[in-house]
Amino acid sequence: MTNDQELVAAKLRRWKKYLLEFNLPTWDNIPDFGLYMEQIIVLLKQYLDYLPPDLKEAQFITPSTINNYVRMKVIPEPVKKRYYRIHIAYLIMVLTMKEGIEISLIQKLIPSNLSEEEMRALYGQYAALHHKICRYFVDLLSDVAAPILKHDEVGELTVESAENLVAFSAVLSGFSHLLSEKLLLLEAKPKTDDQGA
Prior knowledge:
Blueprint: H1 5-21, H2 37-47, H3 63-71, H4 85-97, H5 103-109, H6 116-144, H7 146-149, H8 162-188
Helix pairs in contact: 1-6, 4-6
């Protein structure tokens, strides 16, 4: 795999700029008047538009996926085939986490039976955290890809090529995935006397 380093650098700079400005919608900006399935899919594509342009055409969410989430009780059932703010908030959270952890573990984080007030609070915290993580990711990317981006300051952990950046990202993703699973599984285990209170 060989890439034009200038092209890679230009795309990284553009994506970094976009991510710094990206925010999930606030709770109050999510519609609450009952949308049908196709409207939800269009809305979610707009809300989660931080995908690289070449992946935007791919269907990252389909009616069958949403129906499966309802059937599996990952999100609450729609009301007369209509989805409201609480449903959309669930879907935003699930879709932004599903690349990092399994759906069954997401269910442990956000049970599908939360009240609207509970979900409002949880979603607000999640949207703020998502924004902070976007900024952290951009900083990490700037440091790691400094040689590619031709930054003057080069840290201890850097990569010289797009291929190594792919490897770095894959390994980082793997460790993040493992940490998420381990922490969620720890919560599920009862404490023994050996572990302390």
